[in-house]
Amino acid sequence: MNTKVMPAEAKGGYFSWFHELTGKERLTFWSCKVGYALDAMDTQFLSFVIPTLIATWGLSKGDAGLIGTVTLLTSALGGWIAGVMSDRIGRVRTLQITILWFAVFTVLCGLAQNFGQLLLARGLMGFGMGGEWTAGAILIAEVIRAKDRGKAVGMVQAGWAIGWGASALLYALMFSLLPPELAWRSLFLLGILPAVFVIFIRRFVEEPEVFVAQQKIQRDGAERAKFTDIFSPAMLSTTLRAVLLTTGAQGGYYAITTWLPTFLKTERHLTVLGTGGYLAMVILGSYVGYTVSAFLTDKLGRKKNFILFAVGSLCIALAYTRLPVTDSVMLFLGFPLGFFVSGVFSGMGAFLSELFPTRIRGSGQGFCYNMGRAVGSLFPLLIGMSSKHMPLGEAIGLFAAAAYGVMVLAALTLPETRGKQLES
Description:
The chain has 424 residues and is mainly α. Helices cover 78% and strands 0% of the residues. It contains 19 helices and no strands. It has helices at 8-12, 16-19, 23-57, 61-89, 91-111, 115-143, 149-157, 159-177, 180-189, 193-204, 209-219, 236-266, 276-299, 302-322, 327-343, 348-355, 361-376, 379-386, 392-413. Helix 3 packs antiparallel against helix 6.
């Protein structure tokens, strides 16, 4: 008689892990995924309304770029602060605060009367945007069992593509129903929707057991962990290498996504970039990339998966900048672009959670991911400066190669954490 045990994937499909979750675990999963999707939706509104703001307010491209840069920097600071808060007041409460925060300030963006007010509101919104990812990633990582953690956290990360797609659909809807000067405001006013979702989180989502156990240890007299513990002799090397990993991932992402459209439009003279079809291909590729990477990070391991998607991202960047392509080819290249540059992030939340002990997990994850975001945000500036001395395509390829090279080296030196049990 054949008694061979079949793997879960063969018996119940690739989503059998989800069916094994408890009711509380599923509620936590959906709260984090929906929260991240709403975060993405509110964040992406700006990219769609910039042309309208330039036309109606007379903003320069520099003004528009400043709004984006300030949002990125404040999101890095917000993610760092949220990580520290999650170690102090809890993962769930921090998630509630950050979602409410970015919802309120997104609405204030829609009420802004001039550039200064919009810059201030958008900058403050960035605090919540960055903080929501940190709190949600830690929460879902601590709730899900070790063997499925990568899949669960990666599928939560895929919520970004859903929110991105939702923002594109709402943009098309609002601008078809209203004049542009009202349509852009209506988009930001819709940003209040995440605030309603906080009621659900407050009622149904509980703190992870591992965090509750750690809090009990501290109440029983153990010394409370300090944020600076991530720089202690025992953790400093891990912290610095994790920063290099996230810097490579985000520096490469910003290098490609910031300058690639400009290069293709001005130097290759392609017109497909401004079409809804191209955007749809990139968004679809992003969601599939997040999903595939989520499964591979548990199947191959965190390190191999990072290296695979880093190399894939570099290859697609070189293909865009070095190969002669037509509009029709460019349309279909949108899918692998979204697939690789987004999929590289899918295993990040699980990996960073596994690198740090529970007492400083929020501080460690918040610092490493968001310091990488802050340093990575400099790559577009460096490319712009370098393009004065070399072709833009070469500058994009050079900095993308440097970023993903750093990511691969960091991944090789960090420990493999697949299947690690999270302990207090």
